[in-house]
From TrEMBL:
InterPro entries: Ig-like_fold (IPR013783), PKD/Chitinase_dom (IPR022409), PKD_dom (IPR000601), PKD_dom_sf (IPR035986), TAT_signal (IPR006311). This is PKD domain-containing protein. Residues 596-684 form the PKD domain. One of its GO terms (biological process) is carbohydrate metabolic process. It comes from Kribbella voronezhensis. Signal peptide: none annotated. Residues 508-538 are annotated as: Disordered. Coiled coil: none annotated. It holds the Pfam family PKD. CDD domains: PKD.
Length: 889
């Protein structure tokens, strides 16, 4: 992986070193999981959207001059729009939230300035009717529950929030809720990153540890050509996400794992600054999904009197979602010694097609000697190199049909030699210019070192994930810049380190650099003349900063993987490329470890039953002797020690467990694995549900992430055509058909399976030979087995629809009930009293499908069960299914 491929978390402020953005959103780890990819996957389709209509939000009363976020409220069939800049202009009338019809007719307003002046992004959770707002100044995400007045942005809202900065986000341009898996996606505009935030065991969005138990997974989407991402929206008809980029005039379609599906050209809108995107039914055809995009137009920072906001409706025909190649990440390049095993780890992300499993193979691409892999077919392996030099190794991930890969460059030196390491600035907020007044500037393509003309300033540089162990001896250290212009004036730069164990990201605070403690060691750099642009030679290399780096890595609290910070001030000026420019600053160090000591190798296995897991780290090793310490992070804010600890989780789910081993010389090594745990309850429990309704050739959704190994999954689908051929379910294997009923012109089908540990989060789909209106729903239950199944259909139209009876033979059993009808008038299902509604889907247009899934929510008596009546608002003929869920074990 090249340095230009290395990305991590981000931050932003409504612009890019005055490129002026505003935009619009949002795990249980001690440190976030960062997904970094270097090898592109199979090419996505390029399609073009056509313009349906343009609405001038500038003509709203009161106006929205800078609409920055938009989401679809499916319960009200309205659009919610946020404006992050309107309070900065003279036409502000205490309104920055706008609710409109899909046609753009203003219906209601609200205001958020009591807690956020920058509601850059907005999302909506249809399950609980909560609204999410992202603030790109505070780096926070707010969750609003409308109060008794049923509105948003009013005084009776119930508000909670979590910090995006805690997982590395600082420019939270947009936020979107993802219904298929109950997750929130936060878009970071500054660094083209997306954070997938999953609620922890408490089920709440309350931030990552230590304030909460959320789980954050970070993805860099810049590798796909995304340049200035401003908005993210959910596509209900496809269970995908759209990211809009005004710079490339493109909306990028991604799946949940942020694998690129399609690129949509939006140039027909003539947008100036597309800032938010959502998907909703078309205004001229409710059976079609259209894109709704808000455009800020000219920025108010440059034109304070502007009022030119717009809303576009655009139509696009997207191809069916096929199999996508796995995406592989092997992390940053590494150094090692000849004959010393180097731990390698590959992370593979896939869409679950054609099967849920993937394989990994390690290969040698180039190098002067031989390479021996310890486990060449495993995601984690060791590699031993026979001679010094530069090697390239590759991890190839395959889903049996397509493959993806990522390369790792390994610098191998003679035994005992200094290990070289080049670490780039990885985020926009990791190189900043602190000026005498105002905010610290982090946006733009250049760094003025140390001053900008006559403006005195202090430069802050931060190099995260520095893979230097505590106590290492630094033999080389400097920062390599690339020139962004010619400068020959006398310049003297004082370089200090930030005297902290792990330097936090810089912010826009006026004292974000100078308020931090400085090292005693410092270096004076008198750069030679820079004679042009794009130069990266010795003239652009700082003086020796070994003493500065040594003071930091010798701190008792320094650990491998921490962040090292530098402070630069002085006289004169040199213009260098910044993180946002063509070449980011790079910290070069070389280091040795105490003589005769090499870092240990961490390894562990796990065995889980119910919610309890036992771990075994005895496979860890150290060349010089026994492992001195084992430190465990169980992924739920709990920790442990020892070789073979056990841990019981508070809730079912998937957790990332980390083992850090320490040898007798103080060197450490860390490895992570995921474990999936299920409920230990002896009774049946509801473990999640999801649904889809629409007119499509391939309905799909992701199985809820709460699903655990051993759960019983029941999948229902009702079609408005009996002539459509049905293929599937696919994407997740192991389904058994349990019903296939034709009643009139509708067809109802059902399948069941026992969940595997990898099923949660995987996409399941059906495929039709033509467009078909369909309702597809899934429920999951722990501690259950499938019992008796029965079905019946109404003989005549009625508003009262009765399920068939079934025999319950085992105490502790639950009853699962299903109703579905084909109608042009049904707009509501009402479940029978005493049942628990799990999912309701109501289609649209003529021949719509409306379906209800409910269960008993508790054991039912043995004997005869069923005969439950659900009602529709209009008379219709329906098909009903009753299923007994018997307790397992």
């Amino acid at each position: 992986m090249t340095m230009s491929d290395i990305r991590t978390q981000h931050v932003h402020h409504g612009g890019r070193r005055r490129r002026l953005l505003s935009g619009a959103v949002a795990v249980l780890l001690a440190a976030p999981v960062v997904m970094v990819w270097s090898a592109p996957q199979a090419a996505a389709a390029n399609v073009t959207a056509s313009l349906v209509r343009t609405v001038l939000t500038s003509n709203f009363n009161p106006p929205s001059p800078d609409p920055s976020g938009i989401t679809y409220n499916s319960d009200r069939d309205t659009l919610l729009i946020s404006d992050a800049e309107v309070d900065e202009v003279s036409i502000f009338h205490n309104v920055n939230l706008y609710e409109t019809s899909r046609a753009g007719v203003l219906q209601d307003t609200g205001v958020t300035t009591s807690y956020t002046h920058e509601p850059a992004g907005i999302g909506y959770n249809p399950a609980n009717k909560h609204v999410f707002l992202s603030d790109d100044d505070q780096a926070r995400v707010y969750e609003l529950a409308g109060g008794p007045d049923g509105r948003y942005g009013t005084s009776d809202d119930v508000r909670t929030s979590f910090s995006a900065a805690a997982f590395g986000g600082g420019d939270s341009e947009d936020v979107e809720y993802f219904p298929p898996t109950n997750e929130v996606f936060v878009l970071e505009g500054a660094d083209t990153d997306v954070h997938r935030v999953s609620p922890g065991p408490d089920g709440l969005f309350n931030g990552v540890a230590p304030t909460g138990d959320d789980i954050d997974t970070e993805f860099d989407i810049g590798r796909y050509g995304v340049d200035d991402p401003e908005g993210i929206g959910f596509y209900p008809g496809r269970n995908t996400l759209l990211v809009v980029d005004s710079a490339t005039e493109t909306a990028y379609e991604f799946n949940r794992n942020m694998q690129l599906v399609n690129k949509i050209n939006i140039a027909a809108s003539n947008q100036v600054f597309a800032a938010g995107i959502t998907v909703a039914p078309a205004t001229n055809d409710p059976n079609r999904w259209d894109l709704y995009i808000v455009d800020r137009g000219v920025d108010n920072d440059t034109t304070p009197s502007e009022n030119d906001g717009k809303l576009y409706e655009m139509s696009v025909a997207l191809p069916p979602i096929g199999n996508l190649a796995p995406v592989v990440s092997v992390g940053p390049d590494q150094p090692t010694h000849v004959g010393e095993p180097l731990t390698l780890q590959a992370v593979v992300r896939d869409d679950g097609l054609p099967t849920a499993s993937t394989t990994v193979s390690w290969q040698v691409v180039s190098g002067p000697g031989s390479v021996t892999f310890g486990s060449p077919q495993s995601t984690q392996t060791s590699a031993t190199f026979s001679s010094a030099g530069t090697y390239v190794v590759r991890a190839v991930g395959s889903d049996s049909a397509l493959s993806g890969s990522d390369d790792l460059v390994v610098s191998v030196v003679a035994a005992g030699g200094a290990l070289p390491l080049d670490t780039p600035v990885q985020r926009a907020f990791d190189d900043v210019e602190q000026r005498p007044t105002g905010y610290a500037d982090w946006v733009g393509t250049t760094l003025n070192i140390p001053n900008a003309g006559t403006t005195t300033q202090t430069i802050g540089l931060r190099f995260d994930n520095l893979e230097v162990p505590q106590g290492a001896t630094i033999t080389e250290a400097w920062v390599q810049f690339t020139s962004a212009g010619a400068n020959s004036g006398t310049t003297a730069v004082q370089i200090y380190g930030v005297a902290e164990n792990d330097t936090a990201a810089f912010t826009t605070s006026p004292t974000t650099v100078t308020s931090r403690p400085r090292t005693s060691a410092r270096t004076t750099w008198n750069p030679a003349a820079w004679t042009g642009t794009g130069q990266a030679g010795t003239a652009q290399r700082t003086a020796d900063i070994r003493a500065v780096a040594q003071e930091i890595v010798s701190r008792p609290g320094w650990r491998r993987g921490n962040a090292l910070g530098l402070s630069l001030s002085g006289t004169g000026e040199r213009r260098a490329s910044s993180h946002d420019g063509p070449a980011t600053p790079v910290l070069h160090v070389a280091y040795t470890v105490p003589s005769g000591n090499t870092a240990p190798v961490a390894a562990f296995t796990s065995t889980c039953t119910g919610l309890s897991c036992s771990f075994n780290g005895s496979g860890s090793s150290d060349a010089e002797g026994p492992i001195a310490g084992y430190a465990w992070d169980f992924g739920d804010s709990a920790s442990g020690s020892g070789v073979q600890p056990s841990h019981t989780y508070g809730a079912a789910g998937t957790y990332t467990v980390a083992l850090t081993v320490t040898d007798g010389g103080g060197l450490t090594n860390r490895v992570t694995h995921q474990v999936t745990v299920g409920s230990t309850s002896t009774g049946i429990g509801f473990h999640g549900g999801i649904g889809y309704v629409g007119n499509t050739t391939s309905p799909a959704f992701a199985i809820p992430s709460t699903v655990a190994a051993g759960d019983v999954l029941v999948l229902f689908a009702t079609l408005n055509l009996t002539t459509s051929s049905v293929t599937g379910p696919s994407g997740v294997t192991g389904w058994t058909p349990i019903e296939n009923v034709v009643s009139g012109s509708q067809r109802t089908m059902a399948w069941s399976k026992v969940a595997a540990s990898t099923d949660g989060g995987q996409v399941v789909r059906l495929t039709f030979n033509g467009y078909t209106k369909v309702a597809m729903q899934l429920t999951a239950y722990s501690g259950a087995s499938l019992g008796a199944v029965s079905q019946r259909s109404d003989a005549t139209t009625t508003t009262a629809h009765v399920t068939p009876t079934v025999t319950v033979g085992s105490a502790g059993s639950w009853l699962l009930s299903y109703w579905a009808d084909k109608s042009s008038t049904t707009t509501n299902w009402t479940a029978p009293a005493g049942s628990v509604t799990r999912d309701v889907r109501i289609g649209s247009g003529s021949g719509l499908i409306a379906a209800l899934v409910a269960d008993s929510g508790a054991p039912v008596p043995t004997g005869s069960a069923g005969g439950l009546t659900a009602t529709t608002n209009a008379a219709s003929r329906a098909t009903m299914v009753s299923i007994v869920l018997t307790p397992s074990g």
